[in-house]
Amino acid sequence: MFHNIKQLQQAKLIISAIKKYGGEIRFIGGCVRDALSKRKIKDIDLATTLLPYQVEEALNNAKIKNIPTGKQFGTISAIINKTAYEITTLRLDLKTDGRKAEVKYTNDWQQDALRRDFTFNALSYDIDEDKLYDYFNGQEDLNSGIVRFVGEPEKRVQEDYLRIIRYYRFFGIFGKKIDQSSVYACKKFANKISNLSAERKLNEFIKIFKTEHWFKTVSALYEDNILIDYIGNNPSKNEITIIKNLHSLKLQINPILALAILSSYKAKPVSEILKLSKKQFNYLDNLINCFHQMEIQSNEKHLIYKFEKEIYFDSLKIIAARNKDYNLFDMQFNRYKDWQIPVFPISGSDLKKLGFKEGKSLGNHLRELEESWIKSDFKLTKEQLLEIIKTTL
């Protein structure tokens, strides 16, 4: 089942080390799910009956580098050839607050599977036995395209409210049929999403747009009125149509571009909810400003100079999606992708040499000169600009 995984031989070294120490170990979760569905496997996770300190000893005995990435929750990471493999001790989650759990270790594989979110994420596989362990019909759900919570959906959601967003992300990837009880639980506790840390919400949002089925997820979040609790805004049908057209036109999208549209072009509120970094906020804010300016002016070079190419092209995608016209984007992209953005030829030191003093006034003069230079379509030379500013002395 795992014959296509490049890291398999490295994983076998870990398996050998754990078994030599006396522990049981299996592949667990996403790597098993993706192997069964013939999807590309990114990360290999393993579960074991050994306690964390025993995992460390077993790996040390085998001279395998390891770090305690989540030792308090039973996770040790083995590092082989710069690839990390998470090895987690079987456990029970005794108490949860919707974010973190108090754990107790166990030797019971089915009890460990019971704490996991979806049936197809509770699968485990013993490579030596070539045996798949499926306690909750996860393989059947995977084949049928049903994203189903393990056990009682409401209980699973209350253990960690991020599972609401994860449900919709996995539905976008694997979903063919709706599991009504799972959707009901997500909708019932949607208002609890605000209890999650901004970092976890943003990370999950970014993961959504790393999948090729991102629109299916966004559409389901919108239809089930989850977006208002997630990003603090309920976009209009027109904005969802723009998102849909981006997908149908196969225009590449990134999370910040999606946020611009889903936030109804309001950068500050969504930035505060998701705690965007300064770099992310500036990109979002400039993207929204560029989009608005594109609606009222058509001098592409001026816009590219002011906002730079990446932001201009992302704004152009919104315009193209609104008009459902891929050629509108393609034509402008090919026209300007290789255009060299000109460099403003005047600096503060040039003005100081003319007698201008350091301060706010100097900055104002520079901005005025730059505006004149832009309006000339970047044709005014340094000498001509200096002659213009001399008249204000």
Name a few traits of the molecule.
393 residues, alpha+beta, Beta Polymerase, domain 2, cca-adding enzyme, domain 2, 7-stranded mixed beta sheet, two-stranded antiparallel ribbon, 53% helix, 11% strand
Describe it.
With 393 residues, this protein is of the alpha+beta class. 53% of the residues lie in helices and 11% in strands. The protein folds into four domains: 1-144, 2-Layer Sandwich (Beta Polymerase, domain 2); 145-224, Orthogonal Bundle (cca-adding enzyme, domain 2), CATH 1.10.3090.10; 231-341, no CATH class; 348-390, no CATH class. A seven-stranded mixed sheet has the order 3-4-5-2-1-8-9. A two-stranded antiparallel ribbon has the order 6-7. Helix 12 (237-248) packs across helix 17 and helix 13 packs across helix 15 (278-296). It starts with 7 loop residues before the first helix and ends with a helix.
CATH superfamily of the largest domain: Beta Polymerase, domain 2
The structure class reads alpha+beta
Number of domains: 4
Sheet with the most strands?
7 strands, mixed
How many DSSP-defined strands?
9
Low-confidence stretches: none
CATH topology (fold) name of the largest domain: Beta Polymerase, domain 2
The first-level CATH class name of the largest domain: Alpha Beta
Radius of gyration (CA) equals: 27 Å
Q: Give the helix tally.
A: 21
Alpha-carbon distance between the termini? 79 Å
The CATH architecture of the largest domain is 2-Layer Sandwich
Strand order of the largest sheet: 3-4-5-2-1-8-9
Percentage beta strand = 5-15%
Give the CA-based shape: elongated
Mean pLDDT: 93
Helicity level, as a percent range? 40-55%
H/E element order: HEHEHEEEEEHEEHHHHHHHHHHHHHHHHH
